């Protein structure tokens, strides 16, 4: 995103209008005392994920001719749901009958795959992580003249995600001292940081990643793109499916993260799992692993923000029932009565 990135975020907010939800912000007294913690519940968004914003902004920004080429994308699941939703909205509004296709890694969440099938989305599976699926979609786009939409490496997608910050600063009682944001490819934190730093420069933007798959954090620390073949933290397996996978080489999100993200926190699988369970036990909402990242990170750093307002982006709620069951068995005592 260029220096006028905040303008692109504002334009995205206008473009999206009332097509998506203005998601709620709720106080969470059970997280991070002595900080005053608020949750931005993107898990309540259309498709149960923030991804609806970037996908719809992108499809709306395309010309009729670009859409007619056919749209192809790649995703671990949430961006796929968002693209299916976006394409159906634009088809309905315009009367266009453009085609689209979604390439998913073979490891994509079964819950998200089932929902995509129920939506009638055309799917193809390729590879074991999102980067391999992205490369396959890029190959298809190049060879067959389709229009490729990246799940994060795209200015309009990143600007769409940034509309979360537009709402957040209006909804909070005061400018936050910090905002905790999950990080995968960097589109979410890139869009949010662009708006935050333009409108509330004193707010710290804190990137949250699993220890097992913190590729963007490693790239930023190294000052360059780290080869995915050399990135094998604990096998790269994580509850945080929505942030999993390597960052695309030369992604536009990388310099934004370098310049605008103030701090990086990496969370263990136990910290992520406990955060997901505590959200259900104490806030009575089911969230996916990636949404637990901000909660876990806030708990680690809360003492630094005593009596200050902080916000956590709860990025999605697409969690498999069996995953939640196993987490409850592991982290909730049998006699828990919360």
UniProtKB/TrEMBL annotation:
* Coiled-coil residue windows: none
The UniProt entry, under InterPro entries, shows: Ser/Thr_Dehydratase (IPR050147), Ser/Thr_deHydtase_PyrdxlP-BS (IPR000634), TrpB-like_PALP (IPR001926), TrpB-like_PALP_sf (IPR036052)
Q: Which SUPFAM superfamilies match?
A: Tryptophan synthase beta subunit-like PLP-dependent enzymes (SSF53686)
Q: Which GO terms describe its molecular function?
A: L-serine ammonia-lyase activity; pyridoxal phosphate binding; threonine deaminase activity
Signal peptide stretch = none
Extract the Pfam families matched here: PALP (PF00291)
Q: Kindly indicate whether the keyword Lyase belongs to this entry.
A: yes
User: What cofactor is this protein dependent on?
Assistant: pyridoxal 5'-phosphate
User: Could you tell me the superkingdom of the organism this chain comes from?
Assistant: Eukaryota
Q: What residues does the Tryptophan synthase beta chain-like PALP domain cover?
A: 21-316
Which Gene Ontology BP annotations are present?
Answer: isoleucine biosynthetic process; L-serine catabolic process; L-threonine catabolic process
Identify the keywords attached in UniProt to this record, alphabetized.
Lyase, Pyridoxal phosphate
Q: Does the keyword Lyase apply?
A: yes
The UniProt entry, under PANTHER family, shows: L-THREONINE DEHYDRATASE CATABOLIC TDCB, THREONINE DEHYDRATASE, MITOCHONDRIAL-RELATED
> What is the protein's given name?
Threonine dehydratase
Q: Say which species the protein is native to.
A: Hondaea fermentalgiana
């Amino acid at each position: 995103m260029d220096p006028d990135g905040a303008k692109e975020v504002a334009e995205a907010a206008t473009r999206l209008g009332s097509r998506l939800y203005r998601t709620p912000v709720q106080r969470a007294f059970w997280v991070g005392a002595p900080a005053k913690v608020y949750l931005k519940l993107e898990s309540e968004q259309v498709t149960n994920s923030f991804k609806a914003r970037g996908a719809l902004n992108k499809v709306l920004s395309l010309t009729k001719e670009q859409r007619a080429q056919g749209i192809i994308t790649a995703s671990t699941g949430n961006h796929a749901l968002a693209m299916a939703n976006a394409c159906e909205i634009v088809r309905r509004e315009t009367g266009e009958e453009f085609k689209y296709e979604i390439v998913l890694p073979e490891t994509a969440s079964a819950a998200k795959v089932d929902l995509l099938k129920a939506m009638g989305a055309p799917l193809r599976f390729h590879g074991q992580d999102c980067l391999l699926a992205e490369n396959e979609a890029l190959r298809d786009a190049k060879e067959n003249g389709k229009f490729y939409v990246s799940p994060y490496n795209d200015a309009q997608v990143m600007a769409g995600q940034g509309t979360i910050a537009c709402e957040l600063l209006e909804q909070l009682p005061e400018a936050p001292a910090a905002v905790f944001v999950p990080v995968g490819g960097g589109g979410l934190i890139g869009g949010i940081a662009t708006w935050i730093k333009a409108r509330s420069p004193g707010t710290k933007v804190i990137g949250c990643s699993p220890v097992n798959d913190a590729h963007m954090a490693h790239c930023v620390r190294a000052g360059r793109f780290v080869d995915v073949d050399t990135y094998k933290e604990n096998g790269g397996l994580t509850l945080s499916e929505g942030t999993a996978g390597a960052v695309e080489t030369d992604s536009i999100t990388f310099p934004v993260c370098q310049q605008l993200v103030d701090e990086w926190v990496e969370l263990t699988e136990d910290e992520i799992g406990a955060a997901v369970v505590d959200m259900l036990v104490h806030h009575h909402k089911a969230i996916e692993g990636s949404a637990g990242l901000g909660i876990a990170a806030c708990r680690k750093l809360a003492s630094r923000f005593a009596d200050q307002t902080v916000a956590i982006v709860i990025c999605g709620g697409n969690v498999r029932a069996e995953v939640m069951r196993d987490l409850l068995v592991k982290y909730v005592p049998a006699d828990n009565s919360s």
